[in-house]
Amino acid sequence: MVKTYAQLYLDTRKTLLTCEDEQSASFIARQLVCHVTGKSRERFLMDKELYASEEIAAKLDFATHRILTGEPLAYVIGQWEFYGLTLFVDKNVLIPRDDTVAVADLAIKQALFLDKDPRILDLCTGTGCIGLAIASKVKDARVTLADISPEALALAKKNVSYNHFNGKVSCVRADALNKPSAFLGKFDLIVSNPPYITTRQMLELPTSVKGFEPHLALHGGDDGLDFYRSIAKNYREALKPGGYLCFEFGMGQGDDVCAILEENRYTILERARDYNDRERAVLAQLNRKDD
Protein backbone atom coordinates (compact mmCIF):
# COMPACT_ATOMS: atom_id res chain seq x y z
CA MET A 1 0.00 0.00 0.00
CA VAL A 2 1.32 3.42 -0.97
CA LYS A 3 1.87 5.70 2.02
CA THR A 4 2.77 9.32 2.62
CA TYR A 5 6.16 10.22 4.05
CA ALA A 6 4.43 11.15 7.30
CA GLN A 7 2.80 7.71 7.49
CA LEU A 8 6.14 6.02 6.82
CA TYR A 9 7.70 8.00 9.65
CA LEU A 10 4.89 7.14 12.08
CA ASP A 11 4.97 3.45 11.16
CA THR A 12 8.75 3.35 11.59
CA ARG A 13 8.53 5.11 14.93
CA LYS A 14 5.88 2.64 16.12
CA THR A 15 8.07 -0.30 15.13
CA LEU A 16 11.08 1.16 16.91
CA LEU A 17 9.12 1.68 20.11
CA THR A 18 9.41 -2.08 20.65
CA CYS A 19 13.09 -1.57 21.52
CA GLU A 20 13.61 2.17 22.06
CA ASP A 21 12.15 4.86 24.31
CA GLU A 22 9.89 7.50 22.75
CA GLN A 23 12.58 10.12 22.25
CA SER A 24 15.05 7.70 20.69
CA ALA A 25 12.40 6.09 18.50
CA SER A 26 11.35 9.50 17.15
CA PHE A 27 14.95 10.55 16.47
CA ILE A 28 15.95 7.30 14.77
CA ALA A 29 12.77 7.17 12.67
CA ARG A 30 13.36 10.71 11.43
CA GLN A 31 17.01 9.94 10.63
CA LEU A 32 16.09 6.79 8.74
CA VAL A 33 13.36 8.46 6.67
CA CYS A 34 15.66 11.35 5.75
CA HIS A 35 18.49 8.95 4.89
CA VAL A 36 16.39 6.64 2.72
CA THR A 37 14.63 9.49 0.90
CA GLY A 38 17.68 11.73 0.61
CA LYS A 39 15.68 14.58 2.07
CA SER A 40 16.80 17.06 4.69
CA ARG A 41 14.68 17.35 7.81
CA GLU A 42 13.23 20.63 6.48
CA ARG A 43 12.41 19.08 3.11
CA PHE A 44 10.80 16.07 4.78
CA LEU A 45 8.49 18.35 6.75
CA MET A 46 7.55 20.19 3.57
CA ASP A 47 6.87 16.93 1.70
CA LYS A 48 5.32 14.90 4.51
CA GLU A 49 1.90 14.67 2.85
CA LEU A 50 3.32 13.50 -0.47
CA TYR A 51 3.24 9.81 -1.32
CA ALA A 52 6.41 7.76 -1.24
CA SER A 53 7.26 5.07 -3.77
CA GLU A 54 7.12 1.38 -2.88
CA GLU A 55 10.89 1.27 -3.40
CA ILE A 56 11.39 3.92 -0.72
CA ALA A 57 9.08 2.02 1.63
CA ALA A 58 11.01 -1.21 1.08
CA LYS A 59 14.37 0.50 1.73
CA LEU A 60 12.98 2.01 4.92
CA ASP A 61 11.74 -1.40 6.09
CA PHE A 62 15.20 -2.87 5.53
CA ALA A 63 16.94 -0.03 7.36
CA THR A 64 14.52 -0.37 10.26
CA HIS A 65 15.19 -4.11 10.43
CA ARG A 66 18.92 -3.39 10.73
CA ILE A 67 18.20 -1.17 13.76
CA LEU A 68 16.03 -3.88 15.32
CA THR A 69 18.90 -6.38 15.06
CA GLY A 70 21.05 -4.04 17.16
CA GLU A 71 23.10 -2.36 14.43
CA PRO A 72 24.01 1.23 15.42
CA LEU A 73 22.20 4.02 13.59
CA ALA A 74 25.49 5.53 12.40
CA TYR A 75 26.35 2.40 10.42
CA VAL A 76 22.89 2.19 8.92
CA ILE A 77 22.92 5.77 7.62
CA GLY A 78 26.68 5.74 6.94
CA GLN A 79 27.61 9.00 8.62
CA TRP A 80 27.75 10.77 11.97
CA GLU A 81 28.33 14.25 13.37
CA PHE A 82 31.36 15.12 15.49
CA TYR A 83 32.54 18.58 16.51
CA GLY A 84 30.30 20.19 13.90
CA LEU A 85 31.70 17.99 11.12
CA THR A 86 29.85 15.38 9.08
CA LEU A 87 31.92 12.20 8.94
CA PHE A 88 31.42 9.03 6.95
CA VAL A 89 31.46 5.87 9.07
CA ASP A 90 31.37 2.14 8.38
CA LYS A 91 32.12 -1.07 10.24
CA ASN A 92 35.86 -0.59 9.83
CA VAL A 93 35.92 2.32 12.31
CA LEU A 94 34.49 3.22 15.69
CA ILE A 95 31.57 5.61 15.73
CA PRO A 96 32.70 9.02 17.05
CA ARG A 97 31.15 9.60 20.46
CA ASP A 98 30.56 12.60 22.68
CA ASP A 99 33.11 11.13 25.12
CA THR A 100 35.84 11.95 22.61
CA VAL A 101 35.03 15.66 22.64
CA ALA A 102 37.00 15.87 25.90
CA VAL A 103 40.30 14.82 24.29
CA ALA A 104 39.57 16.93 21.18
CA ASP A 105 38.97 19.99 23.37
CA LEU A 106 42.17 19.34 25.32
CA ALA A 107 44.26 18.92 22.16
CA ILE A 108 42.77 21.98 20.47
CA LYS A 109 43.37 24.15 23.52
CA GLN A 110 47.04 23.17 23.54
CA ALA A 111 47.43 23.37 19.76
CA LEU A 112 46.26 26.99 19.73
CA PHE A 113 49.34 27.91 21.80
CA LEU A 114 51.91 26.01 19.75
CA ASP A 115 54.40 27.70 17.45
CA LYS A 116 53.32 28.74 13.96
CA ASP A 117 52.34 25.91 11.59
CA PRO A 118 52.41 23.15 14.23
CA ARG A 119 52.63 19.51 13.14
CA ILE A 120 50.00 17.34 14.84
CA LEU A 121 49.59 13.56 14.66
CA ASP A 122 46.26 11.83 15.31
CA LEU A 123 47.33 8.25 16.03
CA CYS A 124 44.76 5.41 15.87
CA THR A 125 42.67 7.93 13.95
CA GLY A 126 39.73 5.77 12.76
CA THR A 127 37.36 8.20 11.04
CA GLY A 128 39.87 11.00 11.57
CA CYS A 129 37.44 12.73 13.92
CA ILE A 130 39.98 14.14 16.41
CA GLY A 131 42.50 15.29 13.84
CA LEU A 132 39.81 16.86 11.67
CA ALA A 133 38.31 18.64 14.69
CA ILE A 134 41.77 20.10 15.39
CA ALA A 135 42.18 21.11 11.72
CA SER A 136 38.82 22.88 11.83
CA LYS A 137 39.80 25.01 14.83
CA VAL A 138 43.57 25.51 14.47
CA LYS A 139 43.86 27.17 11.09
CA ASP A 140 47.64 26.88 10.62
CA ALA A 141 47.92 23.30 11.88
CA ARG A 142 49.36 20.61 9.62
CA VAL A 143 47.60 17.43 10.69
CA THR A 144 48.54 13.82 9.96
CA LEU A 145 45.97 11.06 10.45
CA ALA A 146 47.52 7.64 11.13
CA ASP A 147 46.08 4.15 11.55
CA ILE A 148 47.19 0.54 11.11
CA SER A 149 43.97 -0.37 9.26
CA PRO A 150 43.99 0.32 5.49
CA GLU A 151 40.20 0.35 5.52
CA ALA A 152 40.11 2.95 8.28
CA LEU A 153 42.64 5.10 6.44
CA ALA A 154 40.58 4.94 3.26
CA LEU A 155 37.58 6.23 5.17
CA ALA A 156 39.67 8.92 6.89
CA LYS A 157 40.86 10.12 3.48
CA LYS A 158 37.24 10.31 2.35
CA ASN A 159 36.42 12.45 5.39
CA VAL A 160 39.40 14.72 4.72
CA SER A 161 38.18 15.34 1.19
CA TYR A 162 34.50 15.71 2.13
CA ASN A 163 35.32 18.36 4.74
CA HIS A 164 37.72 20.20 2.38
CA PHE A 165 40.94 19.68 4.35
CA ASN A 166 43.06 18.22 1.54
CA GLY A 167 45.55 21.07 1.75
CA LYS A 168 46.33 20.71 5.45
CA VAL A 169 45.53 17.11 6.45
CA SER A 170 47.34 14.00 5.23
CA CYS A 171 46.87 10.28 5.95
CA VAL A 172 49.53 7.66 6.58
CA ARG A 173 49.63 4.07 7.77
CA ALA A 174 51.35 3.64 11.15
CA ASP A 175 51.39 1.00 13.87
CA ALA A 176 50.87 2.36 17.38
CA LEU A 177 52.25 -0.86 18.89
CA ASN A 178 55.69 -0.44 17.30
CA LYS A 179 58.27 2.28 16.81
CA PRO A 180 57.28 4.91 14.25
CA SER A 181 59.02 5.07 10.90
CA ALA A 182 61.54 7.89 10.60
CA PHE A 183 59.68 9.26 7.57
CA LEU A 184 56.92 10.48 9.86
CA GLY A 185 59.25 13.19 11.14
CA LYS A 186 58.73 15.16 14.34
CA PHE A 187 55.46 16.50 15.75
CA ASP A 188 54.60 19.27 18.16
CA LEU A 189 51.61 17.30 19.46
CA ILE A 190 50.45 13.71 19.27
CA VAL A 191 46.85 12.93 20.17
CA SER A 192 45.35 9.46 20.38
CA ASN A 193 42.17 7.67 21.31
CA PRO A 194 43.67 4.16 21.26
CA PRO A 195 41.94 0.84 21.95
CA TYR A 196 41.48 0.56 25.73
CA ILE A 197 38.90 -2.17 26.39
CA THR A 198 40.27 -4.99 28.55
CA THR A 199 40.03 -8.64 27.56
CA ARG A 200 37.36 -9.22 30.19
CA GLN A 201 35.37 -6.15 29.19
CA MET A 202 35.37 -7.29 25.56
CA LEU A 203 33.19 -10.22 26.64
CA GLU A 204 30.73 -7.89 28.38
CA LEU A 205 30.24 -5.29 25.65
CA PRO A 206 26.66 -4.63 24.48
CA THR A 207 25.63 -6.26 21.20
CA SER A 208 25.56 -2.90 19.39
CA VAL A 209 29.31 -2.60 20.06
CA LYS A 210 30.59 -6.18 20.21
CA GLY A 211 28.55 -7.32 17.23
CA PHE A 212 29.25 -4.41 14.89
CA GLU A 213 32.21 -2.18 15.83
CA PRO A 214 35.75 -3.34 14.90
CA HIS A 215 37.49 -5.29 17.66
CA LEU A 216 40.83 -4.03 16.30
CA ALA A 217 39.84 -0.55 17.47
CA LEU A 218 38.49 -1.71 20.83
CA HIS A 219 40.75 -4.31 22.45
CA GLY A 220 43.67 -2.82 24.37
CA GLY A 221 45.12 -6.01 25.80
CA ASP A 222 44.48 -7.88 29.03
CA ASP A 223 44.46 -4.70 31.15
CA GLY A 224 43.49 -2.32 28.34
CA LEU A 225 46.78 -0.41 28.54
CA ASP A 226 48.96 -1.98 25.83
CA PHE A 227 48.64 0.97 23.46
CA TYR A 228 49.40 3.55 26.15
CA ARG A 229 52.63 1.77 27.05
CA SER A 230 53.72 1.52 23.45
CA ILE A 231 52.82 5.06 22.39
CA ALA A 232 54.29 6.69 25.49
CA LYS A 233 57.58 4.84 24.96
CA ASN A 234 57.94 4.39 21.21
CA TYR A 235 56.47 7.63 19.95
CA ARG A 236 58.73 9.81 22.10
CA GLU A 237 61.07 9.84 19.11
CA ALA A 238 58.28 11.29 16.95
CA LEU A 239 57.89 14.28 19.27
CA LYS A 240 59.87 17.49 19.11
CA PRO A 241 61.77 18.48 22.30
CA GLY A 242 59.14 19.54 24.83
CA GLY A 243 56.37 18.17 22.62
CA TYR A 244 52.94 17.16 23.90
CA LEU A 245 51.04 13.87 24.11
CA CYS A 246 47.28 13.84 24.61
CA PHE A 247 45.33 10.64 25.36
CA GLU A 248 41.71 9.62 25.70
CA PHE A 249 41.20 6.72 28.15
CA GLY A 250 38.41 4.61 29.58
CA MET A 251 36.61 5.03 32.87
CA GLY A 252 38.88 4.41 35.84
CA GLN A 253 42.07 4.27 33.76
CA GLY A 254 43.28 7.80 34.44
CA ASP A 255 45.74 7.03 37.22
CA ASP A 256 47.26 4.09 35.35
CA VAL A 257 47.65 6.08 32.13
CA CYS A 258 49.26 8.97 34.00
CA ALA A 259 51.64 6.56 35.72
CA ILE A 260 52.69 5.17 32.33
CA LEU A 261 53.31 8.70 31.05
CA GLU A 262 55.40 9.63 34.08
CA GLU A 263 57.43 6.41 33.78
CA ASN A 264 58.28 7.50 30.25
CA ARG A 265 59.47 10.96 31.31
CA TYR A 266 56.35 13.00 30.62
CA THR A 267 54.98 15.67 32.94
CA ILE A 268 51.21 15.61 33.47
CA LEU A 269 49.74 19.01 32.65
CA GLU A 270 45.98 18.51 32.73
CA ARG A 271 43.34 15.83 33.18
CA ALA A 272 39.91 16.49 31.65
CA ARG A 273 36.36 15.22 32.05
CA ASP A 274 33.67 14.53 29.47
CA TYR A 275 30.07 15.78 29.31
CA ASN A 276 29.04 13.16 31.85
CA ASP A 277 31.66 14.43 34.32
CA ARG A 278 33.76 11.30 33.88
CA GLU A 279 37.52 11.67 33.69
CA ARG A 280 38.34 10.92 30.08
CA ALA A 281 41.55 12.62 28.81
CA VAL A 282 45.05 13.73 29.78
CA LEU A 283 47.61 16.16 28.37
CA ALA A 284 51.30 15.61 29.11
CA GLN A 285 54.58 17.18 28.02
CA LEU A 286 57.78 15.33 27.17
CA ASN A 287 60.58 16.51 29.44
CA ARG A 288 63.06 18.51 27.35
CA LYS A 289 66.16 17.14 29.09
CA ASP A 290 65.39 13.67 27.75
CA ASP A 291 65.53 14.61 24.08
Keywords:
291 residues, alpha/beta, 7-stranded mixed sheet, 12 helices, elongated
Helices, strands, pairings?
Blueprint: H1 5-16, H2 22-37, H3 41-47, H4 54-68, H5 73-77, E1 79-82, E2 85-88, H6 101-111, E3 119-123, H7 129-137, E4 142-147, H8 150-162, E5 169-173, E6 187-192, H9 199-204, H10 207-210, H11 226-234, E7 239-248, H12 254-263, E8 266-273, E9 279-286
Parallel strand pairs: 3-4, 3-6, 4-5, 6-7
Antiparallel strand pairs: 1-2, 7-9, 8-9
Description:
The protein has 291 residues and is α/β, with parallel strands linked by helices. The protein has helices at 5-16, 22-37, 41-47, 54-68, 73-77, 101-111, 129-137, 150-162, 199-204, 207-210, 226-234, 254-263; strands spanning 79-82, 85-88, 119-123, 142-147, 169-173, 187-192, 239-248, 266-273, 279-286. The strands form two sheets. A seven-stranded mixed beta sheet has the order 5-4-3-6-7-9-8, with helices on both faces. It has a two-stranded antiparallel sheet with strand order 1-2. A hairpin with a 5-residue loop joins strand 8 and strand 9 (279-286).
